[in-house]
């Protein structure tokens, strides 16, 4: 399981994505789960990071899911029409 930081806004997006992609390289399980439990401060950049992580996971033949996506971020994903791309773990 990969873990999101407590804050994921535009300012942290590049570093967070880099961290997740490095973790993905070492991840051997065929089912990737990203844990968003700690995530309390975010903007739409968090969605971009999750979607890019998903894209990379799928390109490596893994499934992708998100654990404990904050309700406000789930709502934002729905507004952008990408909620189905971020299934719950």
Structure description:
By secondary structure, this protein is an alpha/beta fold. The protein contains three helices and five strands; from the N terminus they run E-E-H-E-E-H-E-H. The chain has helices at 10-26, 44-59, 71-80, and strands at residues 2-3, 7-8, 31-35, 41-42, 63-67. Helix 1 (10-26) runs parallel beside helix 2. The longest helix has 17 residues, at 10-26. It is globular and about 30 Å long.
Short description:
With 89 residues, this protein is of the alpha/beta class.
Q: Please state the average pLDDT score.
A: 97
% residues in beta strands? 15-25%
Low-confidence parts: none
Gross morphology is globular
Kindly state the number of beta strands. 5
| Biggest β-sheet: strands ordered side by side in the sheet | 1-3-5
Distance between the termini: 11 Å
Main sheet overview: 3 strands, parallel
Order of helices and strands: EEHEEHEH
The number of helical segments is 3
Helix content: 40-55%
Structural class comes to alpha/beta
């Amino acid at each position: 399981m990969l873990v999101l930081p407590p804050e994921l806004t535009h300012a942290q997006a590049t570093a967070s994505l880099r961290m997740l992609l490095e973790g993905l390289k070492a991840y051997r399980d065929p089912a990737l789960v990203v844990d968003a439990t700690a995530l309390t401060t975010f903007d739409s950049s968090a969605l971009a990071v999750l979607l890019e992580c998903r894209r990379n996971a799928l390109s490596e033949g893994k499934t992708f899911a998100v654990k404990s996506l904050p309700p406000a971020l789930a709502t934002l994903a729905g507004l952008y029409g990408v909620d189905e791309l971020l299934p719950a773990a």
